[in-house]
Each structure stands twice: as C-alpha cells, then as structure tokens.
Amino acid sequence: AVAAKMAALGGGGTRWRRAWLPALQLLRRGSKAVTRHWKAMHFQRQKLMAVTEYLPPRPALPPRCLPRPSTRGHQEDGQAQVLQRQVEETLRGSRMVAVCQYNSMPDEDVAMFRHYLRKHDIHVKFVLNEIVRPVLAQSKFRNLLPLFVCRNILLVSPEPRAREMLRVLKGVPQVNLLGACIDDTILSRRGVENFAQLPSLEVSQGQTVAALSLPSSQTSSLLQRGPAHLTALLDEHIRRLRDTGGATEPPPG
C-alpha cells in the first residue's frame, strides 16, 4: 500500500525524498578568521597627532575668582537683613571707605591693628561678600564690586584720613589696600597714595585764595602806575617852579 501510494505520487519516491526536510537541522557556526591585529602607531604619526591635538583656550580668570552665581528666589534670613542694614548705615555715614585684602594673622595683631586705626577715628569692619555685594550693587559704591573676590575688610572713617591709614597699613603686611572711595571719588591704591600727599583743606583754601587775589592785585597796581607817575611828574614840576621863584617859564620838553 505504501509502495502504491509512492508510485501514485510519481517517480517511485524520488520526488518525496527531494521535497522532505528534517524537523531538526544542525548548522555549524564557526568563528571568523581574525585578519587584523593591533599594531603600534608610527612614530611620525604619533608626533603629528600630538601637534594637531586641540587645546581649549584657558579662561582669563580662574573659576574660583569669579563671583558666585546668585540664586533667584532665595529668601534671606533675618540675620542677613540685619547685617545688610548695618553695612548700609556704615557706608552712609563714612566719607572714606577703603577695601583691603585680609590674610590670616594672630588675634593679638588684629587687636593692635584695630587699636592703632581707632586712634585716628578709622574703624575696621569684617564683612562677608554675600552680605556686602547686594548692598554695594544698589548704592553709589557699585564700582567697588570687582574688588570683592576674596576675603576682604572695610576701613571706614567719617573723615578722609588717608595719610594716617597708609601709615598704619605700612606696618601690617597681612592687609593689602586694593582701592577706596573718598568723598564720592573712586581711587586705586596709587590714587590713595597721591591723595595722602595733598595738603590739608585749610592750607589748600589759603593757597586758592592767594592765587585768586594775585591777579586782582596785579591789575590794581597796573591801573595805579600811570596816575602815580603823572602825579610824581607834576609834583616835581611844581617844586622846580618854586625854586626858580615862578618868574621863568619851564623849558620846552
């Protein structure tokens, strides 16, 4: 019966063998041959790659010297507001505000430093940059903001006592003067030194009055020279007439 069915399919089972596929096929997957191996780069190419390597430009200022970004919406606590109010009152009542860089020094030296400055009515204020920067940004001292990039102190005085301040700072190398604002004028360190060499206000006022009165006195003397000379000539002529008795006429010329 099987042979008859295979004969009926035709070809005596040859076609059946040709179309039949096994249910399980075994395929062999062999690994590929490795044709490329690691090879060291040529020395000339290494030099070329090193020369043409991209180097990003260095920033003009180190990141630690840049001001910290301000966080908007940050609610300041009450202590910060009190400190800012104190800084505002100090700046409002001071004619001289000096910004100095402060380095660490013993407490005894700090006490002596403050004592010497207090003798000249100069007070030392230790403030944080986070407190003083918002105050300066809204005042006439906003041009002093670039100086507050490190640990700073303020030297304030109701009178411009730059000469006394420089004399005290000369003996304290841990405190370096960066700039100051004297009588609403921003000055650098060199400008403060030049300001300290100026005479006092009374002497300057006397010199100004003398300089203003000199042209007027010279003009008055020039205006009085002609009449005085004429008066002298007439007096001399009258004296000669009296000597001669008034009989003779004066010679021509």
UniProtKB/TrEMBL annotation:
The stretch of residues making up the signal peptide is none
Any keyword Heme? no
Keyword annotations for this protein, in alphabetical order, are: Ribonucleoprotein, Ribosomal protein
Pfam families on file: Ribosomal_L10 (PF00466)
Which is a Gene Ontology cellular component entry for this protein?
ribosome
Source organism, top-level taxon? Eukaryota
Task: Name the InterPro entries on file.
Answer: Ribosomal_uL10, Ribosomal_uL10-like_sf, Ribosomal_uL10_bac_type
Q: Which PANTHER family match?
A: 39S RIBOSOMAL PROTEIN L10, MITOCHONDRIAL
Q: Which family does it belong to?
A: Belongs to the universal ribosomal protein uL10 family.
Identification of the protein by name = Large ribosomal subunit protein uL10m
Q: Which organism is it from?
A: Rhabdornis inornatus
